[in-house]
């Protein structure tokens, strides 16, 4: 890889600094700028290849004072008004964004569809920077009429940044899912499914609105997709379900009660493993129904798994041959595998960093 420079916005945060460390270790010719709102803030680790820059996603043009030689931007903090997104598009800089919940994600797609793009924009707001969708696509590509069910076990003692709690503000808002019969409106924290996770923990998982169930059915071979979540505390899970079903959660919606809502489920600790179970069902080349299960566990937790998801996408863009760059357009993490980045290469990438992956 020729010497390149990337900008990680939110580079001081739990996810951003791990992305930086992973890419620095893997690519000696890579320079990294860590962007944040605090001028003069020291980098979270020392390296002569790392510098810090001031980037404020609330500014009209967040990249106004950014070097012109940036090869890639990775955004790991909220960009609710798409200011960083559009700032990167105007400068024709490839962007990977990890931060958008479904409504903002769809807002961004609508804007981009009306703009001529000169560089790839990878919208990676699915679970763990699209890691769940990426593995679902890798292991369903040989099937047809596929249904994809993603289940996540969220540890309440895991490390987490404040942006990771945004989903809690969406618990009373219905959303559409795609099924073989068509689109259907559902509510968060409904339709429980009993799941046994890779660590042996068994729990009821409930619907949650994530971009995964929006992007996966765009593939021709996928008929339906769903996402469900449970917490590693059954008491917390049932309490949240009760608050949502009773209407109390809706009563405490809005900015006034945000601290209260977050105090109930956002108490990040020192770290804990994160688990994902993906269930696939589809027809093989003989027309026979087959099922596949992919179990993913990261002992270092959800911020580490998110950072790995972003890093594998960054490598895809950075390592593209100069005469065959990724074409301008909107991409999702599950769009990225090709002959240069197949299922075994991606699986080995995650395993190299201690992620446990079991496929049957």
From TrEMBL:
Entries under InterPro entries matching the protein: NAD(P)-bd_dom_sf (IPR036291)
Protein name: Saccharopine dehydrogenase
The species this protein was found in: Paenibacillus tritici
